Amino acid sequence: xxxxxxxxxxxxxxxxxxxxxxxxxxxxxxxxxxxxxxxxxxxxxxxxxxxxxxxxxxxxxxxxxxxxxxxxxxxxxxxxxxxxxxxxxxxxxxxxxxxxxxxxxxxxxxxxxxxxxxxxxxxxxxxxxxxxxxxxxxxxxxxxxxxxxxxxxxxxx
Length: 157
Hints:
Elements: E1 2-5, E2 8-11, E3 30-32, H1 37-43, H2 48-57, H3 71-84, E4 87-90, E5 97-105, E6 111-120, H4 126-151
Antiparallel strand pairs: 1-2, 2-3, 4-5, 5-6
């Protein structure tokens, strides 16, 4: 799970999978938002003004061959992510790493965090990410949102 901080995603919660070889992301780790599914979902929660500011000021670094660095293409991708309610990224942050992410909304509908699942390309196809992992991710996000509504917790502070 992560939150947006400036141009980066900051990981605030991590649960490692049962595999021996897993991505080494620790709590507090920062990654560029433009190159991650988590970041793209979080960017869709920005106001138009803040997204424009982000796109004008961010340095879109090419981390991998597949990393999206064209501002117009990134904006188009973010529009798609916003419409479909999730993001899929294939080897843009790290070779062999695929990820799917979904936003977590507060009781007002504002995106306050996001949750992601990742897998190695040898374990999951992009279709698997969308048809197998995404439904599980969306169910978990819905449960978190219900808990947030019931508890009245405000994560903005």
